[in-house]
Amino acid sequence: HKSGTFNAANELAKGTDPANIKPATDRLNVDLPAMNILSSRPASIGVALANLGKDHLLDLELSALEKEGGGEIISSPRLITSNKQPAYIEEGTEIPYEEATSSGATSIEFKKAVLSLNVTPQITPDGRVILSLRINQDTVSSEQLGSVPAIDTRKIETQVLVNNGDTIVLGGIFQQIKTKQVFRVPLLGDLPVIGYLFRQTNSVNAKSELLIFLTPKIIQDGYENV
């Protein structure tokens, strides 16, 4: 499967009207109706699903979108598993932090912030595939108490029926980051009344969407389906 993030920050930086920005789902001709979700932050996630079929030029369109600065392919793994057997993959980082022990000493512990996929395929009698999916996206939170890093978690659990070789796309996992940077000339930028002449404030409102593309393929291995 492939996963990637697509953002509108570059378009905003160019002065484009946010109302006219085409989302990645439009660029890829994907229609994503809403589905049920599980999330620690319901306001930032709204899961949707679409089937692209077999003839969609996915790699070319994703590469073009990445070259234009509108997206980034963050992972492109391949998994093989047996019928009705779970497969798991994760990609991310482990964040070190100090934790005090009962003796008063400190030890280094690690907390994961990863994008993970757990999938269990089931082949139907007519040669299609039922995918039981659990997707988890962890990001480091800006809010932190003490030395332990806080993790924002977004989870999806769903089950879909797909034709052998078809590509489905799972989307609707949004993240919005607002930042403000102030650049100033030393001393002059702090002057009252005229100080603003020597200061510049840049505001960035970046919104990204995580899209996950899955293509199940049945491999005949003797008498077993994989």
TrEMBL record:
Which residues lie within the region annotated Disordered?
1-21
The residues that cross the membrane are none
Q: Which InterPro entries does the record match to this protein?
A: GspD/PilQ (IPR001775), T2SS/T3SS_dom (IPR004846), T2SS_GspD_CS (IPR004845), Type_IV_pilus_biogenesis (IPR051808)
Q: Name one GO biological process term.
A: protein secretion
Q: Where is the Type II/III secretion system secretin-like domain?
A: 64-220
Q: Which PANTHER family match?
A: DNA UTILIZATION PROTEIN HOFQ, PROTEIN TRANSPORT PROTEIN HOFQ
Any idea what this protein is called? Type II/III secretion system secretin-like domain-containing protein
- Per the UniProt record, the source organism is marine sediment metagenome
The taxonomy runs: unclassified sequences, metagenomes, ecological metagenomes
